[in-house]
Design goal:
homodimer, five-stranded mixed beta sheet, 11 strands, 51% helix, globular, signal (chains A, B), SBP_TakP-like (chains A, B)
Chain lengths: 358, 358
Amino acid sequence: MPTMINRLTRGLVLSLMLGLSAASHAKETHTLRLAQTWGPNSPILGETVEHMADMAEKMSDGRLRIRIDAANKHKAPFGIFDMVRNGQYDMGHTASYYYKGSIPNAMFFTTVPFGMIAPEQYAWFYHGGGMELMQQVYEPFGLLSFPGGNTGNQMGGWFREEINGVEDLDGLKMRTPGFAGEVMAELGVAVTNIPPGELYTALERGTIDAVEWVGPALDFNMGFHQIANYYYSGWQEPGAEVQFLINQNAWDKLPADLQEILRVAMRTAAYDMYIQSTHASGVAWSRMKDDYPDVTHRTFPADVIEALRAATEKRLKEVAEGDPLAQQIIASQRRYLEQVRQWTNISDKSYLDSVAGE
Amino acid sequence: MPTMINRLTRGLVLSLMLGLSAASHAKETHTLRLAQTWGPNSPILGETVEHMADMAEKMSDGRLRIRIDAANKHKAPFGIFDMVRNGQYDMGHTASYYYKGSIPNAMFFTTVPFGMIAPEQYAWFYHGGGMELMQQVYEPFGLLSFPGGNTGNQMGGWFREEINGVEDLDGLKMRTPGFAGEVMAELGVAVTNIPPGELYTALERGTIDAVEWVGPALDFNMGFHQIANYYYSGWQEPGAEVQFLINQNAWDKLPADLQEILRVAMRTAAYDMYIQSTHASGVAWSRMKDDYPDVTHRTFPADVIEALRAATEKRLKEVAEGDPLAQQIIASQRRYLEQVRQWTNISDKSYLDSVAGE
């Protein structure tokens, strides 16, 4: 009798261990700490991160949690690359062109002047070798990088006076950061770097003549449309994609199902941000025009576009000099753009042209 | 001593039951049967379904399986709506405008002539009330409907002769199905319905003068570019979205985490199809022109576009007559399009225009 009980007990202990092990495996929670460039409650950009975390948590039944720290918490909005690289955070949400100091080739994965629009660029990422090139750039830093949302085609900026030719740019005081600023400087623009909080006053008082921000959705709250009438179409960021960065060690610790959940949540959140930006820009542009009837849309004249294009080519050549990987990325984007743009032109562009005149 | 063993055994049995129950809940597998309109190994459309099923299975660690039946299996490519509605299948992948006989208002959720392009339409679905209206249409049939992938802007078709004005359409024999066919018929086009397998020969022998299919990606294998030189931009399906349909009972049986996994897998697969179509169309259009240098792109002249627009308005009015929900959907799409198109025009369209001339 005692032997039977012992056998029974042993069997139960064994089953129990198997049962509990399966259950505890299924219930093991992984928490990833994410630092974002954006402040708390940041529209569109911050919402995209929350949306991603929410999908991941629901899909994993609570097993994958993303704890988000906004810029007010970590105090390093442009330090995301370093903080994820050194493991201070597991993940980041930022724009890779902010890090052209530490990792110059990262900038190509946000957007390039005269480059691809959002759907073309996603096609390059997922079918034209873009993801592989991006990984080649980030791998030496122990990082994985994924598309993190598109702002759509960014506007060329708010101008207080019309730009009728390339001569009007000479000496123009403008806030336009990064690579686009360097290109503008080639055309004689006095590029200034003024903190976001002071831009409205600077434009109002004439400290600057023009300002480039994002597009209607995010420009609306900046209020530039209240003090500058001319809203120019862009050339500099035709499809600006922000990025998720992940520390490779943190990624490797996740089981395969949670890796896939995280990968798909990021991919969906990125597309969703493009669509949310499309929506929000439509709403905001309509409100701007309703509230300020003097606000009007302009496109840069052909000679300005030509000069900007030439200056872009010059700067790109300088940036890529002596860097075979940079040259490879530029060549890959250029080849891809040439092909896909012909399709865009006979489909969406032709269609939009044919109905625009009505 | 025996009492201790008994207590121990009772405790073990209890823990075992809890452990096993947690483990078996975590491991419970749900299999959904999906019927697709498309044949086996169908490029892009069929790949989208497989991609969705693959993501769902990986994200759920095998707990959610989608068993896909192609048209050769269920023999009812245009019976998906009925088969999912009556529970013969749990899910379907199809285009809702195939069912305008049984559920006329479903057609608005695929595409509408002179309607929105893909990103505009996704914005309408997810931010402009489109999903809610779609659900209103499908709910009485016990179905849920989700976007299932976009072909991008469809081309107007392959023509053997140039169309120089609206008079050239009178008596033209053309394959163009559905609502677009009805509109074309208003302009005097002799709309014919020829099975896909016979279209090439019909066009070659002059049984028809023109054929509308999809776009370069799917037209390529049909070979029309070998026998017709003029490829016209479209007006009839500016952003054709296919659909996932799900039987409400099958959906309700899934636990919340698997519902979210399925929802996100469908959403991502839909966006991914739009991007894959963009890529594949770029590649195919480039090959067509390389292999057949006489192939050339055309846009319909303004008077043709105007006549098509007027005929579309007339038919839409007829379709919506006496149907408040149809009128509501048309009004919602029209309002949304008016707003979002202004954004598209000052962003992507202006940008594409400004760089096209170079």
